[in-house]
Amino acid sequence: MDRDRILLTPGPLTTTLRTKLAMLHDWGSWDADFIAVTASVRRRLLAIVHGQDSHVVVPLQGSGTFSVEAAVATVVPKDGHVLVLDNGAYCKRASKLTQMMGRRCSVLPFPEDEPVSAAALEARLITEPSISHVVLIHCETGAGVLNPLAAVAEVCQRHGRGLLVDAMSSFAALPIDAREIRFDALVAASGKCLEGVPGMGFVFIRKAVIEACAGRSQSLAMDLHDQFEYMEKTGQWRFTPPTHVVVALSEAIAQFEEEGGQTARLTRYQDNCKTLIDGLSALGLKPFLAAEHQAPIIVTFHAPDHPAYDFKRFYDAVKARGFMLYPGKLTQVETFRVGCIGAIGRIEMQQAVAAVADAMRELGLTRQAA
Ligand SMILES: *Cc1c(COP(=O)(O)O)cnc(C)c1O
């Protein structure tokens, strides 16, 4: 096969040929042409969350986690106290990196098959006034749960606490409007729902907050305030930018806008998600989450209830048919995950369902054990 396989993963994901072709050029990082690309990307990113009046956006080299870590280190004062609303693996990563950044960190745990609760957050904020910032993962990619961003933001605002949102797997697909939802920082990356390639993150920081962030980060490379100041002054990135990633993101954003922006992308992903769940359910595979908690980003399925099931063999059989699945990330139950995001539509999802059906037949998994 000389075609790439379809990535049914939460990033990196399948990109268009047009996005890939954008990477066939060399760019000087200090050159006016590249400075213009960076400025245009930043302007269009801000527009996606309607944050032109309230927020700045600071891009950062690295995978998405680099930007989450940088946001915590830049926005939370050294004597701050962070509360992480935890319903999954990416929440646990956020609390680990918060601790490693030397910030006091508490965790409010929730079951991994349910959204976090704004009411439980409010009760905790009332009893623990030292909490200065709350961390929310918008879509918990571990199981695929959609968390209640608007309700959590409202509680944080009413109680005068800062809010940091990891919107990595939701940004550009699920609606986020900075004019209605108050957050201090919101983090996303190039290689998720914008359908760029991986290699950079970006953090929206509230204008009222960014000035106070000077000198907070204990990291040189990941100091978003420094990156912001330098970029405002020179138009350049502080250190070598991922030039090919930036130009690919610019091309990916152009296609996002042509498609019809966030609402069109959400519609396509919802259709992908429905095609997937309907198709695999007909094969006897059960989604792990109740439908009302499921974000249209990534779906966790229970593994086939059959003694012959082995993820690696299943993965290889589906891969041989042109589709890449994703392992489960739950500790208690045997699962696998299937992404609904990327430059794919209903046809690819139908083909993916057919590939899974065929793989199950080959591996003798079609008859479910009693
Ligand atoms: C993808 C993702 C990240 C970032 O992961 P990286 O591997 O560092 O790119 C962070 N949070 C969530 C919720 C994600 O889906």
> Sheet with the most strands?
7 strands, mixed
The CATH class name of the largest domain reads Alpha Beta
The number of domains: 2
Oligomer: single chain
- Mind telling me the C-alpha Rg? 21 Å
Share of helix, binned: 25-40%
Question: CATH superfamily name of the largest domain?
Answer: Type I PLP-dependent aspartate aminotransferase-like (Major domain)
CATH-defined fold name of the largest domain = Aspartate Aminotransferase, domain 2
- Tell me the series of helices and strands, N- to C-terminal: EHHEHEHEHEEEHEEEHHHHEHEEEH
Shape: globular
Mean pLDDT: 97
End-to-end CA span: 38 Å
Q: Which architecture name of the largest domain does CATH use?
A: 3-Layer(aba) Sandwich
Number of helices: 12
In total, the number of strands is: 14
Quickly give the structural class.
Answer: alpha/beta
Summarize the structure.
With about 375 residues, the protein is of the alpha/beta class.
What can you see in these coordinates?
With 370 residues, this protein is an alpha/beta fold. The chain has two domains: 6-10 and 261-362, Aspartate Aminotransferase, domain 1 (Alpha-Beta Complex), CATH 3.90.1150.10; 18-258, Aspartate Aminotransferase, domain 2, CATH 3.40.640.10. Helices cover 39% and strands 16% of the residues. It has twelve helices and 14 strands. The radius of gyration is 21 Å and the shape is globular. It has a seven-stranded mixed β-sheet, sandwiched between helices. Strands 11-14-13 form a three-stranded antiparallel β-sheet, with helices on one face. The model has no long low-confidence stretch (mean pLDDT 97). Residues 10-11, 63-65, 68, 90, 137, 141, 166, 168-169, 189 line the site of pyridoxal-5'-phosphate.
